[in-house]
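seq:
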Amino acid sequence: MDRCRSIRRALFLPLALCLFLLAPACGFAMGEARGGAEPPPSGSLSVSFIDVGQGDGVLVQAGGTSHLIDAGNTEEGPNVVDFLRSRGVRALDGIIVSNPDADHIGGFLDVLDAFPVETVYISGDEKGTLTYNSFLRGVRSEGSKVQQVRTGYLMDWGGVRVDVIGPPTDAEGGLFSETNDNSVALLLTYGSARILLAGDAEAKEEEYMASGSYTGPLSLLKVTHHGSSTSSTPLFLNRFPPKVAVIQVGADNSYGHPTPETLDRLRRTGAEVFRNDEHGDVIVTIKDEQLDVAVTKGFQARAEKLPLSPANLSGFHR
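struct:
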């Protein structure tokens, strides 16, 4: 594990971007931070985008429950475990495998060793790699329940409604041919806040979601597939326009993520964009219809109040 990351968290000084979620299409203003590298405040929903380099790792905490969506590559396992402990996690109610690629599941072995895990959620799109087979052995050793989830599956995470909105069910034609398009896509609803976490979904799954009944403005979007050019299509962003978008991406990665095309499409929606490579861990806390974003590095902003009008969101400056 990179020692600098442990030091970074110890010296965590959150800066916050506060959004008033009084309606699905609302504006935001700067304000005091809540949440950080410590347990989240009571009565809140916390969504932490862990800096796992070129991979995914998202911790969702609400109502005394903790769920981990992906855990980065194998070498990121200790980093993920440290982060979970810093957030007060002692056990996980569930882990979600958005897809079986190594940059999503590699770190789970350390997580399974460190914490009791009640349920493991998968799409059913299995991958016969050494990393995935090792993960399955770890799940069996843990004794966790395994639950396959597809569109229409509904969960409650400590008062947060969680709808699975992808991949398709067998009745709808079943899984797509590409693993990325079979990512488990979760729509979280908490008060007026809507949060979409859809793994590495690319154009086919995005079109599927955009044609469904769950469309509408988002308070928060995890940008699909690390900001690749084959994701965040104009149709998808038109049907799910976000106020805040987070890109899980590693610095100087060989894929060129996020691509300039994707960043341009996100700017056109008016979204405020955060990136793990530039901002470190990105921790979103929703409490009392207010949304705060705290980061661990690199964010410079001035305090500025804005009208509650989507047209004026571009007036915010870093």
